[in-house]
Write a structure and sequence with these properties.
The protein has 434 residues and is α+β, with helices and mostly antiparallel strands. The protein folds into two domains: 3-98, OB fold (Dihydrolipoamide Acetyltransferase, E2P), CATH 2.40.50.140; 121-422, Bira Bifunctional Protein, Domain 2 (BirA Bifunctional Protein, domain 2, 2-Layer Sandwich). The protein is 29% helix and 27% strand. The chain has helices spanning 56-63, 113-118, 120-123, 127-148, 188-198, 234-263, 268-272, 283-292, 306-313, 368-377, 386-390, 406-414, and strands at 3-4, 17-30, 33-39, 44-50, 70-79, 87-98, 153-154, 160-161, 173-176, 179-183, 200-208, 221-230, 280-282, 320-323, 336-337, 340-344, 346-351, 356-363, 399-405. The strands form four sheets. Strands 7-11-12-19-18-17-14-13 form an eight-stranded mixed sheet, with helices on both faces. Strand 17 (346-351) and strand 18 form a beta hairpin. It is elongated and about 85 Å long. It binds one RNA strand of 76 nucleotides through strand 2, strand 3, strand 4, helix 2 and strand 12.
Length: 434
Amino acid sequence: MAEWVPIAEVAQHEGEEVTVKGWLYHRTDKGKLKFLMIRDGTGLIQGVMFKKNVPEAAWEAADHLTQESSIIVTGRVRADQRAPGGYELDVSDLEVVHRAELDYPIQPKEHGVGFLLQHRHLWIRSPRQAAILRIRATVKRAICDWLDSHGFVNVDTPILTPAAVEGTTTLFEVDYFGEPAYLTQSGQLYNEATIFALGKVYCFGPTFRAEKSKTRRHLTEFWMVEPEMAYATLEDVMEVTEQMVSHVVRVVLERHRHDLEARLKRNVSRLERVEPPFPRISYDEAVALLHRKGFEDFPWGEDFGAPHETAISEEFEKPVFVYHYPTQCKAFYMEEVPGRPEVCRSVDLLAPEGYGEIVGGGQRAFSLELLERRLEEHNLPREAYEWYLDLRRYGSVPHAGFGLGLERTIAWICGLDHVRETIAFPRMLERMYP
RNA sequence: UCCUCGGUAGCUCAACUGGCAGAGCGCCCGGCUGUUAACCGGGUGGUUGCAGGUUCGAGUCCUGCCCGGGGAGCCA
């Protein structure tokens, strides 16, 4: 038998007889000629099958072959401009591993979103969805590579937690041997402990929010990478963020340019501009900008909604940092701006093209006194935070960190209109199946 | 939780002012040596989301419920 090669590498075997193992994506019959679109997870290639070139049994097997049947196809690799992708397989033999039942629900045509999500376990086979999942893997890898090579130690923070990290908002409660426990919504507080042992750290895992959000930017289970650094400031956070994000975009462009352009119809020139430094504007400046752009009645002190974020990011070609938010709309652990306690040392990174906030971070409160006061103001149970307060008792340092939402970042890079396509099996309000 | 749109064949949708429930795709049969979601001919396919009401007659109007899409708030 000829050498088994992944479809992605078929072009390197021009003129040779090769075997591909995959699934039938689409078939077109033209009398004594058949076109078989074959996918194998690495790519898509057209097999051209002439009746006179294949054994009788292979021809008959192909005759009524159903979509998504698993097949092993052998043929000579040939360059042909008429073939999608430029190369095709001049088929000499075909073996049917399993003939799929004939009611495969997903056709190579348009479907409604609800239907596709109900069949997500099959939808991911479609080339576009598979491309997104491959890019997701690259994004994760690129993030870890960058952090690992810049002195960050990967620490796994717990998923089961005893209390709310950022207050008692919407957490998923689970039964922990008769006591309530909660699925984590951030590993940050634990990272603030581990930096005292390791210097620079990051956690990277799933987080859970039980909020009843029904928008293109929300999942109830999503992945977040959270770097945290000892002896670091808000300015350090912005520098690390822009370096890391730029690296990720660069790597994705390097490895997935074709998928981005051909499969996802992404305008990559927008991504090519993503290089440090990113513009930085203060919350005050952002509010002034909004006032100039038609949001005259936006009150100072409120957090931005989606339309505001879009309006701000429209003014810039790159992702933009907005820093020094009002203290009242950020979490209890934010450091104050010296001399201006009404704003805090926080920063959000807004992605271009209306993708909104992909990073939130800041410099953490340094002093025990400030933290104690904040816990009280936020009505948080002090007992649950005693260990956290210890961090300010034994060698407190200025420190800072941020969280980057993986799905939102991927949606932006891929140019998707909803984060649900960036994860294999999205968990959303109103949807837990499959 | 609120606002908004929707639910008709396996899929995407149509059906005027209440009057015989349809098309394209899929699938099945036949034809075709260059298809790109092929094309041509024939065939298959329905508890109109559920329950009740109005009416001679309801996919269509009314009430309630269920399910889903989009958005807001909140967030990454």
